Please model this.
Amino acid sequence: MTRALTEAETAADQGEVPVGAVVLDPDGTVIGVGRNDREDTHDPTGHAEVVALRAAARARDDWRLTGCTLAVTLEPCAMCAGALVLARIETLVYGARDPKAGAAGSLWDIVRDPRLNHQLEVIPPDLISPDTAERCSRLLFSFFSARRLR
Model:
């Protein structure tokens, strides 16, 4: 999650919503890193999770990321949750809940929907380090507070 936070901070520095993501293979090796880049790329799918999944798929030379873990600073939206299911990610760890758009338990629970062909293990903020969860939340809060002041 530390690497994901670093990516989120970089995104904020670039004027992007501060979300960072990292994909780890079953051995714990980082195989994909991403941060929000929608403003820079003008790509509506430029969410940190999608960017990290694309990098991991290239590293593995396979779209199936079976056995991998994705750590992300903010609960995935519906699009990203669907991408995690389709990529066959095994475990999702996220640092801050998203009550307005979260699709890993807050608003929807796409990643654990038994009607889909794959479900993920989910490790929400209350099961990670309280300091890490606080850093994830604080980064987003600070970003949007500053944006509202402009």
In short: The beta strands are 20-24, 30-35, 69-72, 91-94, 121-123.
